[in-house]
Amino acid sequence: MLNYKQLHHFWSVARAGGITRASERSGLAPQTLSGQITALETTLGVSLFRRQGRRLVLTETGSMVLDYAEEIFRLGAELEDAVHSSAAGRTLPFRVGVADVVPKAIAYVLLAPAMALTEPFRIICRESKLDQLLGELAVHKLDVVLADSPLPPNMDVRGYSHKLGESAVGFFATPALAGTLKGSFPRCLDGAPLLLPGAEASVRRPLLRWLEDHKIRPRIVGEFDDSALMKAFGEAGAGIFPTPSLIGDEVCTKHGVRCLGLAETVKEAFYAISVERRLTHPAVRAISSAAPMRGEADEAVG
């Protein structure tokens, strides 16, 4: 089993650039530090340093171990700070990753219960591609990731998917564009300009299947990874765009559009992905318990 005291001595020597300097900073004898590093190398079965003249330099494996050690002790310092902050009544960080395919308004709806907690929290939101956010979740740089799909089975990340809810999908257009359409919904979509979510959005394939099932062939004039950008194009009249009906009223008010109709059988779901099955972070528990369709976590993946 890894001895974290030995790892800390290795980390100190690597950061200081040598045993002598690390000894001066820590007050420990050089022989003690050297012995601890030798013990760690024996445990790991590899050499972490090599001699280069009078200096010690990291081996390739040593560099890898240093990267892990940096992350381990960064998290340790963060844990200590979080505990002290809680005891002192200071705000604690709540670090959320939001997949870029999740509509901003939906993200707010899902996170609002955490903002209403009496405990002092400071929410830190990061938006990016799902795979990048899951990588940060795996090394505990994030507390939770909001996504439109559960944890992909091909990801090298062990985690759990907690379903927060789902919504039917509506089609929206400016009044001017809606006035040019012929027939009732959904036939009015046939031949009409349509904006679609990008290939990574989980709702894209069900939408295309729904259109095919109804024998509707719109003109796809744009595809967008960012749902906000898609709505901006829709607001400008570039095309009809789909969005969850859960935020339909807000979309109509904000973007000056109206709902043409709903694809009732197309559901867009939303998930909180965590590295723990039983949620412990108070803010994550809040958004899970307040979710409109909460349930048991999916089985671990990874």
From TrEMBL:
It comes from the Bacteria. One of its GO terms (biological process) is regulation of DNA-templated transcription initiation. Transmembrane segments: none annotated. Keywords: Activator, DNA-binding, Transcription, Transcription regulation. InterPro entries: LysR_HTH_N, LysR_subst-bd, WH-like_DNA-bd_sf, WH_DNA-bd_sf. Pfam families: HTH_1, LysR_substrate. GO terms for molecular function: DNA binding; DNA-binding transcription factor activity. Residues 2-59 form the HTH lysR-type domain. Belongs to the LysR transcriptional regulatory family. This is Transcriptional activator NhaR. The lineage of its organism: Bacteria, Pseudomonadati, Pseudomonadota, Betaproteobacteria, Rhodocyclales.
